[in-house]
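Hi there,

I know you've been waiting on this one. I reran it after we fixed the sequence typo, so this is the corrected version. Both the input and the resulting structure follow.
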Amino acid sequence: MIDFRNPANPLTAEEKKTWVNALRSEKYKQGKGTLKTKENGETLYCCLGVLQEVCPEPKATDKDMLSSCERGVYYKLSHFDQSTLAYMNDEGRTFEEIAKYIERSIEAPETKEAPETKETPENPENG
């Protein structure tokens, strides 16, 4: 069963900080309806497009975003968070407002947890 609430590879605290700082940097101009587009010679970004730029794996396209949302694993965010952020962006919330929302509402662990490993007994020496 697909878990739409939890991404497979969650955003880390460092990635979250990088993303929030990028949204506030004024380096990225805000656009709507697409992750990244050019308009009148200027590159415009959705808040999720900024995330893609500053934490570049996995690469995603607008088409990927829709299909990945269905799986709940688009770019380290839950389906709920993806939908909320896309809605906020496209309804005119500023990057500053979105950055504040991310700080308050999106959880991010300090570090990625190491995968559990199973200990295997050593092979006894044949004697």
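Quick highlight: The longest strand covers residues 36-39.

Best,
R. S.
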